[in-house]
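Before the break, one more example. Copy the sequence into your notebook; we will annotate it together after we see the structure.
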Amino acid sequence: MSNEGTGARPAGKPSVLRRVWLFIEILNVRLRFIFLMVIVGFVVGYWENITNYYDRWRRPAQAADMVAAQDIEFYCPMHPNIIRAEPGNCPICGMPLAKRAKSGKAELPEGVLARQHLTPQKVQIGRIATSPVEYRLLSREVRTVGIVEYDETRRKFIAARIKGRIDKLFVNYVGQHVEAGDPLVWIYSPELLTAQQELLTAATRLNEISGGDQFAARTSQSLLEASKQKLLLWGITPEQIETILKRGTTENHLTIFSPITGFVTEKKVLEGHYVDEGGDLYTVADLSNVWMQAKIFEDESGGIHVGTAVEVTSTADPGEVFAGRITFIAYQVDPATRTVSARVEIANPDLKLKPGMYAHATIRVSVGQVSEIEPPSASAPATAESVREAHAETGELIRAYLALSAAYVADKADPTALAELETTANELAKHAHGTIASQAKAIAEEAAKLKGKDLAAQRGLFKSVNAKVIELLRGQPPAGQTLYVAYCPMVEAEWVQNSEGIANPYMGSEMPKCGVLRGTIAAKTVQEREQYVMGYYCPISPDHLFEKPELCPIDKFPLRFVRAEKMLAVPASAVINTGTRKIVYRESEPGTFDMVEVKLGKRTGEFYPVISGINASDRVATAGAFLVDAENRLNPAASAQFFGASGGPQQDGGQNH
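Here is what the structure looks like once it is written out:
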């Protein structure tokens, strides 16, 4: 059969197009395979980096959520952001992952940024120790340097008060020590001869007319006094003038004496020199007191004022301490050094400090308020036992007072309550000290005035008793109760009661409800009682109070009895300062530490005064505080959320504790 009739394609070699199409199909399959192998090779080759980037950017934000439902998790000690649910190796450093209990997020108390639980073994190995936050006497120490100078108030310039010639010098060199009244120079002066002759003439004339003409006598007396005054102004002493008058002859030389005891610091003349009136002769300086110009940086000058005590030392005598006080503070800051100049006056009895010396100054400024009060009597020193007894006696006094007031409300005079009030006031005066003792004594004296009086007279005198009682209770309220101060406008007087309902002791049954409450007197809290302390105070060492009225061991001045304010203080070793905030780790229970942000004042020695953030009796980690912070960073929930003490970026809508 013929192929032409069927229209079939003749058998033979593939056409060119078919071969091209087949080549393209084969090439397409091979290219796909090559591309797939390249992708697989890239993923395999960079798999470690891919997982590294994934863990670095995704795992910290999801760490706590990923392990929240698990009891155990695995982490890398070198890279805390690497957390796995299964054991393995760190994809960054290759270290085996360590196992630990999971740490999920928890609701934290207000003010707590993070909470870290440590096992007793970790606390022991890390040697983590805690210290209490408590009230302390704090003083800020300022150290500076300065130069010793002459005390200008003890430096005298000696000049010639009369024109003449120096015939003799009694002091021949600079540095010579002279006593007050020692002769310095011997001056010949013709003017001195004339003035002495005028003196003798006036004295002779006065003697000649003695008992005669009164006008002439008064005139001669005036001339005599004028002649004496002229010589006194030239430096001649009254004794020398009397000698001239007794001798009746003139002296052609004038001796000039030293006005003070000290050292000659300048000598301007030699023997044979002629000097004019007012010409400089010597400069004498008393070095028993010297000045020091201390330079204080402006940011440290707060709290330093005139009268502040200063401890001074010198390199020449490093073991010697000199006491001084600031007597002047410059009115402006040196723009070049940003310092304020303060003049320190220093006692220098042994002359160990010499003008021109460099000296070191230590200024201690009390952080709390210090107020001087009346010291206790020698028979009743201020001790802890006496303070407790004084508080007890205050309670007894108020009970006696309230009994007497209740009797007046009932229109009765109660001699027993009155006697008890006087007795308890006297007992309080014995055990108390300072202002409290004097106030208690005044109450006893006022109560004694009520004895033997009728009810109306007692009510009139009760006003002064109430005034003294209120004054005492405001300074030392009784423990365990709240008292109310009421006022009666009818008699214009106050009284004290232990309830809010008015019970007027002045009006009695006539108008028992007349009056209004003016205020309360509440017992002091533990914080208020701990915040103040009384004792003998040395200004040069304000962080320590003495029990007895001795001399200050440094400046030898008598100690002052003061009421000093304690400041809430946290040990400096407990504070972690990140540069943006300060935090401490507060121990909420054994082994549990809460990270708390605190506001602190300027550091004072080994402590910081606390402004806010922690309270008295809190315990904070001191030794090992940085180890606690490191553990907190390893905590996945805490580190992802809070980044340890240093803090970190906060996303909007993030959880805040």
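The first strand starts at residue 72 and ends at 75. Residues 47-101 form one domain. Try to locate both features in your own notes.
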